[in-house]
Amino acid sequence: MFIKTLSLKDYRNYLQSEVNFSSGINILFGKNAQGKTNIIEAIYLCATSKSHRTSNDKELINLNKNESHIKLVISKQGIDENIDIHLKKNNRKGIAINKNPIKKLNELLGVMNVIIFSPEDLGLIKNGPRERRRFINIELCQLDSIYYYNLQQYNKILQQRNNLLKKMKKNNKIDKTISIWNNQLSIYGSKLIAQRQEFINNLNLIIQKIHSDISGNKENLTLKYEKNVSDIDFIQKLESNINKDIKFGSTSVGPHRDDIMFLINGIDIRKYGSQGQQRTAALSLKLSEIKLVMEKIDDTPILLLDDVLSELDEDRQKYLIQSLVDIQTIITCTGIEDYIKNSINIGRLYKVSKGNVTLYNL
Predict the structure, then answer these.
(1) Are 286 and 165 in the same domain?
(2) pLDDT digits (tens, 9 = 90+) for 111-133
(3) Which domain holds residue 25?
(4) Domain harbouring 230, CATH code
(5) HEC states along 141-157?
């Protein structure tokens, strides 16, 4: 799959703009704060309905406007599909696929598969577990509508259980209905655990070879899914932790507390790895993600590289660039010297300045 065109109207600093992309490598270059990342964000929004930078849709609308429109045309195995998103400051956003408004988000997920890689992702290993859970959730939601449904149900039940715990703290009583929420939480939580374990297992089949190549066969990288609780003793742990949960007004057991361990030669690099090892592992993870998505959807995802090349050393730059074969890649950067130096085969080159995108010839 590849994006053919992206049209923006009153989106952040873009009043009216349309970009026609190559199916290969597209580079958007320009000074900082000109709108390069806004294009990446708009594409990501069309794939997931969410920004990767903010949870407030109002921030996506031009400061002087009340509405914003994003239109994207994607080609999938020779067939064009249209994604339209209408943002409003005083109302919920509207999403349409091929001019048909959707009622549920899962109708959008999977229409376009994107993988985003930014400098922040290089800190995925050293950051807290919330970032690693977010990584799992974003990818699995794009790949599996059932996972999205299970996650949605789990989060709703978790919120209801937490609300009940807060009431129990005030009343100093254990509400009998807590057992109902325990049961429901364990049902959907167990499904998430099984799906996440399968995802990590599949990544492990891919990541070890990639990481070994990047590290010059010096390091063996393994991912380990750290479950907060197993499906076998889920309800039992919810019940045994009830007094603690009432005290803090939140649920201490469940997949919302899960994590991923990154082991290089058996050592947990979240705690003991060098910055170089952590960054290389993050790069290996993203490249593995591409291969896994290709296997799952029998197509190529779209890769978004947001100013990430400058954060990598020369060896990692070369490995990443050599991996960009037969996959549409949209890259943002301040200068194009690194790409020319690495003899990258550029499909289209655009200069971005003050919310304007113009085709640029080398």
Answers:
(1) yes
(2) 999 999 988 888 899 999 999 99
(3) 1-113+300-362
(4) 1.20.1050.90
(5) HHHCHHHHHHHHHHHHH
